[in-house]
Write a structure and sequence with these properties.
The chain is α/β, with parallel strands linked by helices and 269 residues long. The chain is built from eleven helices and six strands. A six-stranded mixed sheet has the order 1-3-4-5-2-6, sandwiched between helices. α8 crosses α10 and α10 packs across α11. Bound molecules: adenosine-5'-triphosphate. The site of adenosine-5'-triphosphate (ATP) has 19 residues, from α3, α8 and α10. Homohexamer. Belongs to the AAA ATPase family. In the C-terminal section; belongs to the peptidase M41 family. It comes from Syntrophotalea acetylenica. Keywords: ATP-binding, Cell cycle, Cell division, Cell membrane, Hydrolase, Membrane, Metal-binding, Metalloprotease, Nucleotide-binding, Protease, Transmembrane, Transmembrane helix, Zinc.
């Protein structure tokens, strides 16, 4: 990876319509969207700006997608970095990257900073895990001090995601830091149906395709798996030179995706 690229700044075109299910999470995040759309309205009334939001949930359930959707709905720039990128480089670089990232987000406010895999940098300090990684602790300290250093008028929301909230340093969760948690749960069959609908929007489906049936027969699959399922089905259909994707293609794709997820499980053991 190139060390020059510390983080990316993007204009998100993702909206809540692209995030299927997760209605409760969207509702909770609507407040953040409204703040970012019109921060002055909040400030005028002396309301304290929201600051940090932690999205908590298993891998592939749409946390990153959700953060992009908040930026898209609000129409503000989205600065993203994965926490493991913070610390992979040279000693001392992690902390300066954090400083740089926050400075840039403030310059472009209102804006959103999104830190993926917060646990990579945010594990409890002094636990000896990672062999007392000074670089990581310095980075974490810098992150905490940046969050404390916001002025009331700074119109920057810091979002982050983790699937291990239990290992986070409690200092991260204090008021003024990531004091709001939004749960992004694994989809039930209804939500899986919605996710399949979103991802088949541009796929020509044969009449025999029953997305509800597919949703019911894919327990345990997350959004990323379902996106993969649709893509595999389209690939199989394309290889047959079919005009449309039919149920048989989905059935074969399902076997493949399930094999893939099982392999991942075995490998992670
Ligand atoms: P990780 O913890 O692995 O980073 P994540 O929770 O951030 O995972 P995303 O990266 O947002 O998951 O999801 C991967 C892809 O899966 C998304 O880009 C999207 O295409 C699809 N996806 C996941 N969840 C949903 C959802 N609820 N609705 C629509 N698509 C989804």
């Amino acid at each position: 990876k190139s060390g020059a690229k510390m983080y990316t700044k993007e204009r998100s075109r993702v909206t809540f319509a692209d995030v299927a299910g997760l209605e409760e999470a969207k509702q909770e995040l609507m407040e953040i969207v409204e703040f970012l759309r019109n921060p002055k309205r909040f400030m005028r009334l002396g309301a304290k700006a929201p600051r940090g939001v932690l999205l908590v949930g298993p891998p592939g359930t749409g946390k990153t997608l959700m953060a992009r959707a908040v930026a898209g709905e609000a129409g503000v720039p989205f600065f993203t970095i994965s926490a493991s990128q913070f610390i992979e480089m040279f000693v001392g670089v992690g902390a300066s990257r954090v400083r740089d990232l926050f400075g840039n987000a403030k310059k472009n406010a209102p804006s959103i900073i999104f830190i993926d895999e917060l646990d990579a940098v945010g594990r409890s300090r002094g636990t000896g895990l990672g062999g007392g990684n000074d670089e990581r602790e310095q980075t974490l300290n810098q992150l905490l001090s940046e969050m404390d250093g916001f002025e009331a008028h700074d119109e920057v929301i810091v979002m982050s995601a983790t699937n291990r909230p239990d290992v986070l340093d409690p200092a991260l969760l204090r008021p003024g830091r990531f004091d709001r948690q939004v749960v992004v749960e694994r989809p039930d069959w209804r939500a899986r149906g919605e996710i399949l609908k979103v991802h088949t929007r541009k796929v020509p489906l044969a009449d025999d395709v029953d997305l509800q049936l597919l949703a019911r027969s894919t327990p345990g699959m997350c959004g990323a798996d379902l996106e993969n399922l649709v893509n595999e089905a389209a690939l199989i259909a394309a290889r047959e030179d079919a005009q449309q994707v039919c149920m048989a293609h989905f059935e074969r794709a399902k076997d493949r995706v399930l094999m893939g997820t099982e392999r991942k499980l075995v490998m992670s053991q």
